[in-house]
Fold this sequence. Notes:
- The protein is of the alpha+beta class.
- 19% of the residues lie in helices and 35% in strands.
- It is built from 2 helices and 6 strands.
- The chain has helices at residues 20-24, 47-55, and strands at residues 5-10, 29-32, 35-38, 42-44, 61-65, 68-71.
- It has a 4-stranded antiparallel β-sheet. It has a two-stranded antiparallel ribbon with strand order 2-3.
- Strand 2 (29-32) and strand 3 (35-38) form a beta hairpin.
- The protein is globular and about 35 Å long.
Amino acid sequence: MSAVRWTTAVDREMCMGSGMCAGLAPDLYQLEGDVAEPVRPEIAEDERALDAADSCPALAITVRAGARTVGPRR
C-alpha cells in the first residue's frame, strides 16, 4: 500500500513574493525571481506545507490530497 501523496502549487499570478513559504519550509518552496514555486509538486503529507499555505498573505498556495483541497485551511 502506498503512502498518501499531496500536490502543492503556487498561483504565479497571485503570488506577491513575500517569501513566507520559503522561510517556513525551504525544502518545499523556493523563490524564483519575484514569485515562489514548489521545489517538487508532489510531496509526502507534511504539516509545513499546510502552514505555508495558511501563512501566504496572497493565498497563492494550494495543497491537495487527490482531488480534495487540504490547504489552505479555512
